[in-house]
Each structure stands twice: as structure tokens, then as C-alpha cells.
Amino acid sequence: MSDYQRIATAIRFITEHARQQPSLDDIAAAVNLSPFHFQRLFSQWAGTSPKRFLQVLTLERGKFLLRQQLPLLEAADELGLSGSSRLHDHFVQLEAVTPGEYQRGGAGLAIRYGVADTPFGPMFIAQTPRGLCRAVFIAADSGLTDSLQTHKERSAAEELAALQAEWPAAELLEDRAAAQQLVATLFAARGSTSATAPLSLHVRGTNFQLAVWRALLTIPAGQALSYGQLAAQLGQPTAARAIGNAVGANPVAFMIPCHRVIQQSGALGGYRWGPLRKQMIQSWERLRLSGDE
């Protein structure tokens, strides 16, 4: 069997068995290759990983089912997903900043930003026409001399300066209403229309960072992986430290769920926006899954 035939057979297998959500091992076995060699061959020919290809198929099928007004739990079951929270995860798509966009520094781009309240404190949030580019919790503590409001304002100003440095040629427009709407979508109640609205992330990072952030998006709500497990999932079992750095560099709080990564011992571990906030988010997700939100 030629490489072309193997990939054609694999794509057909994935399409026909999408409802069973086949694993990499399942798909590789269908074309008589080891998972390692199949992953590399598929990525070379298709320009994406088998897992990502399956996610796209699942997302498109999910959009169709929801347009037919199918209840969320029924749609998730039809797609072979474990629950509505997994369906929600498929609606979060990550797009990388292109080399041209990076080189132009955002010239011709309008970025809307604002500060909005979330269940875990105020968040500085910004979006380009292609998606959410920054979401950062602010005002973690008020310090010894500042009032909470003063600290919040200073933190927001620092985040705005960081956004300007990242996109020096872009037009930055304050839009509090848009920020509030984005937050409403991010933290929407289970089962609401907002909770299943497609959400794009338009972020800037190295290829390695982007690979780590995409892997974070696959961790189900209410669950957690250790840095070592995440490294093994990425096929780089000796890169746990580098992966930890990439997790910490995540520019989009909550939606790229770095709060779902813990230490090998089971300890909570650090968090860019504070360990208490990490613990609160983990607890909140588990309560949502149990129906006690």
C-alpha cells in the first residue's frame, strides 16, 4: 500500500468511525502502521494531526446537530462525546498569528479591549477580528498601600501596555460592552446558547508553545494532567520543564486551561494568576459537571 493509499484509507476510517471517537492506536492499526509512524506520516500528508482532523469533523457535525435544535446531551451522545462539556471543548478553536501579521505588528488591525468581572475576579480581555488574543486575570491582591480599585486600574494599564507592545501598529479600541459579552460567553451557564457558541483564539507563540496550548485544550473540564503526562501526550517525555514554561506563557486564561495541569505528586502546583484562583476554578468546574453550579 502506498503512502497516499494509507492516508486515504485513514481519512475514510476516521470519517466512518467519527462517532466512536477512535484513538490514534485504532486509526494506525487500520492502516497497519505503528502509532508513531502513522502520526508522522499523516501530519506530513494532511498538514495536521489525526486527532486534530477528528476534532474538526466532530465540530462540523456538532454545528449541524445544534442547528437542528438537538439538545446538548443528545448532540454530545450522537457525536460519541462523554458529555456536553466535551462538546463545548470542541467549539474552542485556536489560530496562530501568521508570519505576515507578526511582521506587520498588527498594522491595519483593530483590537478591542476592556476589563470585565468574572466569577474569579476582574479580567483584562482583548480580541482581534479573528478571535480572542488576550485574557488575563488582574488585581490578584491589593498590596500593602494600594486600594483594590487602584491596584485594579494599575494592573489594567500594565496589561494594556503589554498588548500595545505585542501589537505595536494595531489600533487599540476600548470596548467595555464587547469585553462583558466575551466574559458572558466564557463563563456561560451549562446548557445555555452562549456555552456552545464557537469561540476562536488568535494567539501568538512559538510552534512548541502552540502545540502545548492545543494539548491543553484537549484536557476535559473537571480533569487534570501532570506536567509529565502532558509531556508524554506530546511525544516529548523528557521536556516536562519546557512544557511547564509554555503552560505558564499561556496568554488566554481559563479558555486555554492551564489550570488543569498539576504536579506529578497530585499537588496543585503554581499558576500564573495565583494558586488560590487555580483551586477555585478547578472546584467550580467540578461543581458544574455535577450540576451543582
Instruction: Tell me the major beta sheet.
Output: 4 strands, mixed
Overall, the morphology is globular
Taking all residues together, what is the mean pLDDT? 80
- Total helical segments: 13
| Spatial order of the strands forming the largest sheet | 4-3-2-5
Helix content: 40-55%
Straight-line distance between termini: 53 Å
Please report the total strand number as a whole number: 8
Based on secondary structure, the structural category is: alpha/beta
Percentage of residues in DSSP E strands: 5-15%
Supply Rg.
Answer: 20 Å
Q: Topology as H/E string?
A: HHHHHHEHEEEHEHEHEHHEH
Low-confidence runs (pLDDT<50, min 5 residues)?
A: 141-145, 191-196
What does the model show?
With 293 residues, the protein is an alpha/beta fold. The protein contains 13 helices and 8 strands. It has helices at residues 3-16, 24-30, 35-46, 50-67, 72-78, 84-90, 99-104, 148-166, 176-186, 207-216, 227-233, 240-248, 275-290, and strands at 92-96, 110-118, 121-128, 131-137, 171-174, 199-203, 225-226, 261-262. β2 and β3 (121-128) form a beta hairpin. α11 (227-233) crosses α12. The longest helix has 19 residues, at 148-166. It starts with a helix and ends with a helix. 28% of the residues are buried. It catalyses: a 6-O-methyl-2'-deoxyguanosine in DNA + L-cysteinyl-[protein] = S-methyl-L-cysteinyl-[protein] + a 2'-deoxyguanosine in DNA; a 4-O-methyl-thymidine in DNA + L-cysteinyl-[protein] = a thymidine in DNA + S-methyl-L-cysteinyl-[protein]. This is methylated-DNA--[protein]-cysteine S-methyltransferase. Belongs to the MGMT family. InterPro entries: Homeodomain-like_sf, HTH_AraC, MethylDNA_cys_MeTrfase_AS, MethylDNA_cys_MeTrfase_DNA-bd, MethylDNA_cys_MeTrfase_DNAb, MGMT_N_sf, WH-like_DNA-bd_sf.
